[in-house]
Amino acid sequence: MTKYVFVTGGVVSGIGKGIIAASLGRLLKMRGFKIQVEKFDPYLNVDPGTMNPNEHGEVFVTDDGVETDLDLGHYERMIDISLNKFSNLTSGKVLWSVLNKERNGEFLGKTVQIIPHVTNEIKSFIRQNVENTKPDVLITEIGGTIGDIESQSFIEAIRQFSLEVGLENCLFIHVCLVPFISGSDEYKTKPTQHSVKELQGMGIRPDIIIARSDTAIDESLIKKIAMFCNVKEDCVINDITLDDLYFCPNFLHDKGFDEVVVRELNLPATKIDFADWDKMLKKIKNRSGNVTIAIVGKYCKLRDSYISIVEALNHAGCENGVFVNIKWIESEDIKSEEDAKDQLLDVQGVLVPGGFGSRGIEGKIIACKVARENKIPYFGICLGMQIAVIEFARNVAGIKEANSREFAQKGDFVIDLMPDQVNQQKGGTMRLGAYDCEIVPNTIMEKSYKSMKISERHRHRYEFNNDYRDILVKNGLIVSGVNPQKNIVETVEFNNHGQYFIGVQFHPEFKSRPTSPHPLFVAFVNAAKELKK
Ligand code: GLN
User: Fold this and answer.
1) Whole-model pTM?
2) Of 280, 305, 335, the domain-final residue
3) Ligand 1 atom closest to Cα of residue 418
């Protein structure tokens, strides 16, 4: 029988509900429970796939090919599970489905309303998730802040749901900001009290309150929150800002978080096993020295745009025992080779991440050239792989007009639109999710993965054009990974006196976990470390 945990947020957004949900998932997993997580996003987009990364951050892709909120990346990394299409629901997706049913006459002439039709749709999504994944505990994070108009149907749906499955099988966790007022030098609990009141007004009584503050708050404030918000004293947990988010599970455990969750949900009080997690934490703490990696991107304004890449670099840094400093470079700022050299000659690695559209492309191509010619380790991901192919075609194979059909009307399209992408509508229609890749022996791919067959997650419309394969290979490009079903070139390398130079059409960052860092990132950071020596 599944138990349900619902995580809501109060006072302000962005106070780490996702990290709380993920940390709880980790703690319960270490207690031996099977965990599933889902995120409800109140916005009206059907999924975040069409949103600008500078506004909404990265789009995280699951194995089964769904474009989801970046919080799912935190869940996967922290809990070490692979999520699926049931793990992210937006208001847009709910309404889309309800309206399609209405058009198909499925409501038999009834007036279609938020209650019951929209709330039923949300509840049926929760049920489907449980039927498909059969967890001991399902953790549901509701995005946004209590009081938002957009999230009301989700709150109402979980209220109804908790009555249907029994309140004894549900736990409501409310994460609130406790602000510090510097003028009077004190923390204030009133916003938390108001937020809980609002939640209670919607029929939900929180069982646990996470009081989020910058530094530790006084015990008297914990007592005050407990009394005013009608929760047990040991169910008010003070979460503070930590140096590394992976310290969060241990911190919350020490505060008794998982113990009260297990108690309140009537779960067996199993022993917790920190062995693997602590081994990883030791690596975080034992780093010394550093390498600098330049990320040459086009969505650098918002760090969350590349959050999985940043995390994967950090995982690889821990594995290599070094800190990874990131130098953010807006590709539009690179207008000449001089610009690129100014920016790149002092770094130990250049990473060109994924991206869409022609803005900033030439800057990325120049960055790739400077990396190749100066033997700075190069790692191209998705668009970054396509950039590497274009740069190689132009400057090594002499195909001067080499380009991608995404960026130009005419030219030699060494990167072309995939046949099944012609006339595709936008929104969830790219080549998405996990695909096989067969690895060619004696390549960086083989050395890194130590395996000949892998599966990685994709998100793209364009691909390596096989018409140019012979000429590029003749000029020294190495095709090191191929999709066996469709003969798609998935990875390219360049043997430049042992330089780490690789481009991959997939997104390896989505599968890197702190407890199992991704082999390509580990090899890349290792190459950076060697260069620094
Ligand atoms: N824009 C490129 C394509 O669609 C690359 C996509 C990406 O980097 N995710 O193929």
Assistant:
1) 0.94
2) 280
3) 10
